Amino acid sequence: MESHPDRTRPIRARAISRMGLLAAVAIAVYVFESLLPMPLPWARLGLSNVVVTIVLFANGLGDALLVNLVRIVAGNLALGLLLSPAFIFSVAGSFSALAVMAIARWRLIPPLSIVGVSCLGAVANNVVQVLVFSAAFAPSEALRGLVGAFILLGVVVGLATGAVAAVVLRKLGLARFRGVD
């Protein structure tokens, strides 16, 4: 009796290839972003979060977690920052942002658009990073007073990254997902 080839293999291989490509783009943007001047100490613009937001909306939370993890580990490894304070801030901020974005994406009624979800994620990232820094290195009221500035920066960056993610999803033909339009 003749065995049938696995018909899911080409689809699975394509999905894995796509995830690898998305992770590579996120890493490249993350490393490139490190070359740009930072608006505030340790405050990146979060351009690589565009890729994570796209993956969250197009593929779901599991794939977004994977791309986020690979981006943080490989990006910090490439920059020589693995296990440094910057790495810890990145982990804390990125995963809290992703958790907030996932909750905003699937639990809020009415649901937010991709831009609104991105804004909440960027704000969560910034606030958590300030709190982690404050708890670990400089527990002062003055530092916690900067939270307002980081919230404002998060809103501005979240608007920009969310808008870019929405455009990319539309161009890729994935605008059918709720909240992209």
What key attributes describe this structure?
181 residues, mainly alpha
What value does the average pLDDT take? 84
Rg (CA only): 18 Å
Strand content: under 5%
Number of DSSP helical runs: 7
Largest sheet: none
The arrangement of helices and strands along the chain is: HHHHHHH
End-to-end C-alpha gap = 51 Å
Low-confidence stretches: none
Structural class designation: mainly alpha
Question: Can you give the helix content as a percent range?
Answer: over 70%
Q: What gross morphology would you assign?
A: globular
* β-strand number: 0
In short:
The chain has seven helices and no strands. The protein is mainly alpha-helical and 181 residues long.
Notes on the structure:
This protein has helices at 9-33, 49-58, 61-78, 85-106, 114-136, 141-144, 147-171. By secondary structure, the protein is an all-alpha fold. The radius of gyration is 18 Å and the shape is globular. The mean pLDDT is 84.
Topology:
Blueprint lengths: L8 H25 L15 H10 L2 H18 L6 H22 L7 H23 L4 H4 L2 H25 L10
Helix pairs in contact: 1-2, 1-3, 2-3, 2-4, 2-7, 3-4, 4-5, 5-7
